[in-house]
Description:
The complex is a heterodimer.
Chain A: H1 2-8, E1 12-18, E2 26-30, E3 36-42, E4 46-56, E5 62-64, E6 66-77, E7 84-95, E8 98-100, E9 104-113, E10 120-121, E11 125-136, E12 143-151, E13 164-170, E14 174-180, E15 184-186, E16 190-200, E17 204-217, E18 224-237, E19 245-251, E20 261-264, E21 268-280, E22 285-295
Parallel strand pairs in A: 3-12, 15-22
Antiparallel strand pairs in A: 1-4, 2-3, 4-9, 5-8, 6-7, 6-11, 10-11, 11-12, 13-14, 14-16, 16-19, 17-18, 17-21, 20-21, 21-22
Chain B: H1 6-33, H2 37-49, H3 58-85, H4 90-96, H5 103-120, H6 125-135, H7 142-156, H8 173-197, H9 204-227, H10 233-251, H11 254-267, H12 270-275, H13 277-283, H14 293-310, H15 315-320, H16 323-337, H17 343-360, H18 365-379, H19 388-405, H20 408-412, H21 417-421, H22 426-443, H23 450-459, H24 461-464, H25 477-493, H26 499-513, H27 521-541, H28 555-570, H29 575-591, H30 595-611, H31 616-632, H32 638-653, H33 658-668, H34 683-708, H35 715-730, H36 737-753, H37 760-779, H38 781-788
Helix pairs in contact in B: 1-2, 1-3, 2-5, 3-5, 4-5, 5-6, 5-7, 6-8, 7-8, 7-9, 8-9, 8-10, 9-11, 10-11, 11-14, 13-16, 14-17, 16-17, 16-18, 17-18, 17-19, 19-22, 22-25, 23-26, 25-27, 26-27, 27-28, 27-29, 28-29, 29-30, 29-31, 31-32, 31-33, 32-33, 33-34, 33-35, 34-35, 35-36, 35-37, 37-38
Amino acid sequence: MNYIIGAFKPPCDIFVTFSDERCRKQVAVKKDNGKTAMVPAFQSLETIAGEVSIAPVPGKRIEHMGVKIELLGQIELYFDRGNFYDFTSLVRELDVPGEIYERKTYPFEFSTVEMPYESYNGTNVRLRYILKVTIGRNYVGNIVECRDFCVRNYSPLPSINNSIKMEVGIEDCLHIEFEYSKSKYHLKDVIVGKIYFLLVRIKIKNMELEIRRRESTGSGPNTYVETETLAKFELMDGAPVRGESIPVRLFLTPYELTPTYRNINNKFSVKYYLNLVLVDEEDRRYFKQQEINMFRLDEIPQPS
Amino acid sequence: MLPDGGGDDEERWLAEGIAGVQQNAFYMHRALDSNNLKDALKYSAQMLSELRTSRLSPHKYYELYMRAFDEMRKLEMFFREETRRGSCSVVDLYELVQHAGNVLPRLYLLCTVGSVYIKSKEAPAKDVLKDLVEMCRGIQHPLRGLFLRSYLSQISRDKLPDIGSEYEGDADSINDAVEFVLQNFIEMNKLWVRMQHQGPVREKDKRGKERNELRDLVGKNLHVLSQIEGVDLEMYKENVLPRISEQVVNCKDDLAQFYLMDCIIQVFPDEYHLQTLETLLSAFPQLQPSVDIKTVLSQLMDRLSNYAATSPEVLPEFLQVEAFAKFSNAIGKVIEAQVDMPVVGAVTLYVSLLTFTLRVHPDRLDYVDQVLGACVKKLSGKEKLEDSRATKQIVALLSAPLEKYSNIVTALELSNYPRVMDYLDNATTKVMALVIIQSIMKNTTCISTSDKIEALFDLIKGLIKDMDGAQDDELDEEDFKEEQNSVARLIHMLHNDDHDEMLKILCTVQKHILQGGPKRLPFTVPSLVFSALKLVRRLQGQDGDVTGEEVPATPKKIFQILHQTIEALQCIPCPELSLRLYLQCAEAANDCDLEPVAYEFFTQAFILYEEEIADSKAQITALHLIIGTLQRMNIFGVENRDTLTHKTTGYSAKLLKKPDQCRAVYACSHLFWTDDQDGIMDGERVLLCLKRALRIANAAQQMANVSKGSSGSVILFIEILNKYLYFFEKGIPQITNTVIQDLIELIRTEKQNDSSASDPSAEAFFASTLRYIEFQKQKGGSIGEKYEQIKAS
Lengths: 304, 793
């Protein structure tokens, strides 16, 4: 019986381990099946090193055409599912053709790998990094094992970070001025601002601040734009009068945000917007949308 | 109109709200018990979401709020535990609660954690408070905002960085505490005012009412301010009051202005008010015209005057800050600013100011006069007051000094007093005059100079004479009598021990009351006459001392005045009264040895009798009076006396009815026998009179016989018998026991003739007369001896 089962099982187990797996930061990543898994996180220009260990099923022998490990950066667009576009591809040959009788370990190293894009799992697009081990075989298919890892790139605090200040309104109806202290926010930042009511002739019921993510994929006529509201944050309850100023303080921590991605490999962009919405008593919505720039702040050296 | 059942709906909504609170509170408790912070936050936010309702009236909303409030106390305790255990730092917690998506629950939670934050002292109280009060701006809905801020105020009360508090920060921290409360107050007031302007117009009144229910939420802040230890006079003066009053003035809402001004006055100490009068008062003229300023200002003045009353050592301060001048000024400005203020309002203000003045500066009569003067100025250019409430206030205004000084004399020095009175209508003038008189009576004030009396009569002129255009037709007779009686009583209060001055007083009074017209004179003249006679008696008492000098006050002069006065009365005509007064004067003249004067008065009396008194009953009374008076006169020479007595007996015989004639005649007998030393003792004429009386009695008897077929009463005979007995005892030689014996027999015969109907009263009278004779006999002595010969039985 074992023979039969063994015939359909891969004849060996392949493990890919990173050399600093124990101490490396792990992040949660949502997988295709909806489950979250912890994967190690790297950033660009890090050296990715580790071991591949191949353990044949006891009593079996693997004849191969060579063993290699690839580091791939892939973009998958969902309207073109299954078709991966590799923007990064590095290969290391691990073994020359031969046979493996018993467990065998190969160290590997990709030094200072350029990984300009962050891993991203969006509505219509996914960007991922994998280590792919391939045992080449002649007659039967290759044995392939993939290991995901995550890339997060940190930015320093921007030297220029202007506030967003703007006066908007509907003539003789509503004039407001809003001010957000910054235009660039890191992911754990706080949006602080103020809304001034210069003229109020409509009966406002409440006011909220939304954080919206705009993901556009493809290019030219095939552009798909998906907008998603990630946060709805009520700022004000009731109708203000002229001269009131309403404080804004929105902590970004609870929301799953990513940095702003601009034109990643000509395939997609992810942008963030603050949308200020005023709702009147007849549930009409008046809004003004402002783009904000998101970035990932290096957490290790705490900015003072 | 709203359909009925609105109340039921509201009840239902409230019930739903409470159910929601309870349910979420239950889950929250469970989370708290299992130390599950995340769930605790989640359910508490859901619970607080019930407070987001817009459907409840303030009253019901309060109920819901209280439910949630109780639960929040527990949550706060949990937070405190949590941070103490170190499972979550308070800073993190402060951030964590701000993740809530809805603003109202978020802010309630933030305030709650803020309270824990301050307690933990991980951050200066002032920073946390500042943040909280700022963040609360997110609630612009008036009702919800008010309650949220009230919650903030509630949880922060014991955590202000006050002086001496454990949360006191650096040197300036008291400013932060004050700043915090002030800001919360200002925001709450804005919300409260805004409430009036939101929603449909037709429910405006209802909203006014609802707002009134909420006012204490706003006022509480002022209370908190007053409780802050560090708010000393300096700070109050420089910062607190100007800010509050700015807010009050600027909110331009009458309800708020009224309530808050009142609040300021109530919660802060009097001492502060006194020292900041200028600032405080400067706010008043800027208030909305519809604000009931008078009540508030009156309150303030009341409080300050109480303050002055309870601690007399602060009085110098009042002077120092010129409290009166400031009030006076402010009132002037308020009246100027509020053009539409009804007269009653203005007058009420003056009443308060006056009360204040009287209590604080009782010695400053000029202040009182100033107030009255200002009032006159306000009233000037107006007709007499029609508004009954204003009138009432003026009466109060005028009564106040009377009560205070309990001495009308003081009031008489107020030059503006009568000028204010001029604005009263006639009826009220009278009421006021009565009040004045009553005040005099009550305090038995003696007014002793003619100047003052002049002033006084000016005040009460409504009672003294008919006012122009007055309609006396509607006057109640009884009221009128009451009034005039008061005046009459008043006249007796005018007194001066100095005779000359007293004479002047009398002249003044006379001058005034003679203007009174026919209806008043009968009431007032007697008083004047008797008052004058009193003076005469006094003069007479010290006659010898003052002779020789040029004395203005002589009895003669007084009698002249009296004569004029009574003459005026006589013109009304009012003969009976005049006659009595003449007789009184005559008697007084008699005592002063002024024969011609006395004679003159008698002449006047006789003329009156002859010309004016026609009614037979009146004649009888008058005649008896004349006889009585004349009997006591002893200054007349023989000739004068004869003339007068002759006249009198003549009148007696001319009375209409025989019995009256008879009685008058026997009364005349007294004119000829006086007990005085040098008095007349003419037994002959006494007997003559008595005999004449008997004759008339006889005639009367016969007339009765003829007309009624039965003899008249024998009572006349018995009366004459008594006269006989009287003179018998006096020892008139012409009256002998035989005469009396005859008369007794006569009466007996008459009685027997008159068998048909015996008069029981006559019977008793006769019997007791006989008993008297017996009694005298038994008593013995000289009289008894005389009686011995009379057989009574």
